[in-house]
Amino acid sequence: MDNSSGVGVLDKAALVLTALESGPATLAGLVSTTGLARPTAHRLAVALEHHRLVARDMQGRFILGPRLSELSAAAGEDRLLAAAGPVLARLRDITGESAQLFRRQGDVRVCVAAAERPTGLRDTVPVGSQLTMSAGSAAQILLAWEDPERMNRGLQNSAFSAAALAGVRRRGWSQSVGEREAGIGSVSASVRSPSGKVIAAVSVSGPLERLSRQPGRIHAPAVVAAAERLTQSLRRSGD
Predict the structure, then answer these.
(1) What domain count does the chain have?
(2) What is the dihedral of CA 147, 149, 150, 155, to 10 degrees?
(3) Which partner from 43, 81, 192, 217 sits 20 to 30 angstroms from 232, CA to CA?
(4) What CATH number does the domain containing 59 carry?
């Protein structure tokens, strides 16, 4: 089978990425695996590193870069959104509260799907809304499993503490009482990619007069179940 696309530089870049699938490689290792000339292999690896498709480990060896994970997550977003509609609608019907799906984008979290309570007092979060990462149960979920450095940065000026995030990791769900907005409570749980990475947060939110000062006691089981349904749908679609 001819693996040539007719665009030589892309074919050679693909050789470099394929070579790194099996793990870290020195420049000499890349040359041996790909059959490329040493200057060519070096030039391509450095160019791919510039675009974060390749990175270096602590020993200076070439490894696959973080941009590949980001692209993979983006590819999975369509599957996530396709599954989210009925899951959020069911969660809304079970809890009687508005349900949302949040994803992190840099220093904010974005509502990418929602099912609103049709009548009565409710917390409305339109799709596309950008909310803070420093308050709210969804922000806790999206920060709790980050690497320590990013987590510590996120905790600066936040309404919750490192101890609170440790509790989130232990329980598997989070709650907030008036953190983001006075009089509003919420409960959230994590949606994970097939690799186990937290990629989204499922939430229900509403007035404290219905959710109480301990909203997790009321709604955590339903929210966790909804998050697990979305996680399972991504695993099935990734098979």
Answers:
(1) 2
(2) 110
(3) 217
(4) 1.10.10.10
Helices marked H in the chain: 8-20, 27-34, 38-50, 66-95, 137-144, 148-155, 162-171, 208-211, 215-237
Tokens of 157: 């000026």
User: Which CATH number is 160's domain given?
Assistant: 3.30.450.40
Q: Return averaged pLDDT per consecutive 10 residues of the chain, 239 residues in all.
A: 76 92 90 94 95 90 84 69 92 95 90 86 81 95 92 92 96 94 94 90 94 94 97 76
The first and second tokens of residue 96, run together, are 């009687």
**What is the number of residues in the chain?**
239
Longest dimension (CA), the chain: 69
- Asked if residues 43 and 31 have their Cβ atoms less than 8 Å apart, the reply is no
Instruction: Copy the structure tokens of residue 225.
Output: 């179940």
- Which residues, 6+ apart, have CB-to-CB distance to 89 below 8 Å? 99, 115
The reply to whether 163 and 134 lie within a common domain is yes
